[in-house]
Amino acid sequence: MMERGSILWLVLLGVIIIAAPCAAEIQYNDGGTYDIATTINDNVWVDWETPGMGTTVNVLAGGEIPI
Predict the structure, then answer these.
(1) Rounded Cα gap, residues 10 and 3, in angstroms
(2) Are 60 and 40 in contact (CB under 8 A)?
(3) How confident is the model at residue 29 (pLDDT cuts 50, 70, 90)?
(4) Is residue 31 part of a domain?
(5) CA-based angle 29:35:40, to the nearest 5?
(6) Domain that holds residue 33
(7) Number of separate domains in the chain
(8) What one-character-per-residue DSSP string does 4-34 give?
């Protein structure tokens, strides 16, 4: 049988894992043109250097990507 301290540590670990924030990333990398007119609260990655792709992202009025 597990000690009471071990059980408390397992419960604490479980709470930390459940409460940990998740990070998302939006990738624009297919050569298309995208217009952003809303707020995006995730990381944004634009691959504009790949030869022949030329991905473009336009931030329009009302659009925002906070740092």
Answers:
(1) 11
(2) no
(3) confident
(4) yes
(5) 80
(6) 23-67
(7) 1
(8) HHHHHHHHHHHHHHHHSPP--EEEE-SS-EE
